[in-house]
Amino acid sequence: MALAERINAFVKLGAFLKQFATEHPTQDKTIPFNDVFFDGMLHQLKLTEENNRWFNKENLRFAIGNWTEALQQENLENWTNRYKFDAISPKKVAIIMAGNIPLVGFHDFLSVLISGHDVLVKQSSNDKHVLPFLAKYLEYVDESFKGKITFTDEKLEGFDAVIATGSNNTARYFEYYFKNKPNIIRKNRNSVAILTGNETEAQLIALSDDIFTYFGLGCRSVSKLFVPKGYDFQAFFGGMYSKSEIMNSAKYANNYDYNKAVYLMSLFDILENGFVMIKEDKQYASPIATVFYEYYDDMDSLREKLREDANKIQCIVSDLNVPNEIEFGQTQHPELHDYADGVDTLEFLINLN
User: Is the pTM of this model over 0.90?
Assistant: First the structure.
């Protein structure tokens, strides 16, 4: 199976997914095998939402929309053109997937297959319906994928390398268990934003997307702000207001009420606007419905802190020429070459030989 053929199959998958990136999916008769898969995909999305209430229709559409954009032929070619696939000897690569946001493991799945390897997938119970269905669609689009994709709920066996994503705690077990295999082990990371007080209203509204998309459950979700001493949070709360309807989610509202009660009983100083709380805290990982903040004295010392804590940070939102910064509102729109934890997955896979 040549690289061009693998790319073509994923382009067709992207076209199939596009039907489900809108509020009211409409069947496109020109999509291959749509008569077999369209209604089935609707059913898998329904099962996903019923199984995990964090994965509501809006978040499912958003994730699918992102992959619809990524799986364009130009994007896939620009991504893969950076590498040499000439001498790939197919290996079986196990992937242990997280389940914090919809299709969070799809990039690893894509990377393994696009590089010519076989994939053995162990999914999270929180996100177990859609990906196997998409894998079946790939096998219909190109029969060469048959036998190259395996899903399992059992102990992983018979693999040559592993990509595992989990918490800092599970990562210790992964590192021990997979110490004799080539591996990528991912731990907890969070994203931050640097504010100065000079942000425009549009930038702060865009920041609300970075904070609230997927209810803040993604590693690319901004969970902490760095602000100068004396910062006035009024403008920040104004930018967040456009997301007030998030309280219509019972799970989010319950978490908001619970965490607010904990803070108040613990006599913590918090500021809140009825749907999000901010709390001064040096940690990066904040609870749902909470954003931590920390004051900085000057940009030089902040840059040094960010450099020292780089292994805890996924994205930095800023317009201050900070290394690897991301524009306001863009954390949830990664490119194919935006690798989790900054580890080049394709380079790892190519070098398995």
Answer: yes
